[in-house]
Amino acid sequence: MKRRPLIFAVVAVLLSAAAFKVRSDVSKIQRSKPGGVGFAMSHKPGVGQRAVLLQRWTTTDKGLPMTTTRVVLPANDTLQAAYKNKSGSPPEHFHLYQSSKFTTIRGKAGYVLDGVESVLEPGNSVTLPHLHPHTFWNAVPDEETEVQEEIVTHVGNSTDFAGALETLFGLSRDFGGLDNVNPLQLLLTFQVATC
Q1: Where are the beta strands (DSSP E) in the chain?
Q2: Where would one find the signal peptide in this protein (predicted)?
C-alpha cells in the first residue's frame, strides 16, 4: 500500500513536466495581432481554413467577453473536411462556455445545429449556443466562403478562447499541419481554452 503514494507522486511530477514543456512550446508560437496578419489551420500544410483576428477583449452589452474573427472556408477542401462533400468542415462539436454568432460575408456557409442542417446566404447570421452540438462548412463547391464570427464567453472564466484558436492555427503552421502536433500539446491547448 505504501507504493501507491509514490506512484501518484511520480505521475504528478511527469504530468507537471509535460505541462511545463507544452506551455513553453506554446509561448514560442507566433500569434497574430488584432487586425493584423491572419493565421491558418489545417491538417496538412498549404490547405485549410484561414482566419484574421479582428478584435479581442471587447464586451457585449451584458458585459460578457467577446472576440471577433473573420474566417475563410476553403473551396474544394474535402481532404481536410470531417464530412464528405463539406469543404473545411470540422468534426461536430460543442463549446462548454462559448457561443458563436456566424454572419456570412461572401459565399454560403452550411451548418448543422442540434442535428438540423441549414445554409446561410450572404448577410444572414446564426447563433450557435454553448453546449449545443454543431459544425459548419463552405456550401459553395468552387469558391471560398468568408464568415465573421463573434465568440462570446458566457460562464466560467475562459476569456482567451481566441488565444486558443490562435495557438491551434500557429501549431498547424509551425508543425506543418495538426497531424504532426503532439496530442498532449493539443489536449492541453483545449484544456486551457476551457478553464
Answers
A1: 39-41, 49-59, 65-73, 98-106, 109-113, 116-120, 125-128, 134-138, 145-153
A2: 1-24
Alpha-carbon distance of 109 to 147, in angstroms, equals: 8
Residue with cell 452589452: 61
pTM over 0.85: no
For residue 26, which amino acid is it? V
Fold assignment, 3-193 = Jelly Rolls (2.60.120)
Radius of gyration, CA atoms only, the chain: 18
**Is residue 163 over pLDDT 80?**
no
Q: Whole-angstrom Cα distance, residue 127 to residue 101?
A: 4
**Closest to 39 in 3D by CA, of 164, 123, 139:** 164
Reading phi first (left if > 0) and then psi (alpha if -120 to 50, else beta), residue 107 is in left
Q: Tell me: the pLDDT tens digits for 55-109?
A: 666 777 888 877 787 777 777 665 556 666 676 677 788 888 888 899 999 999 9
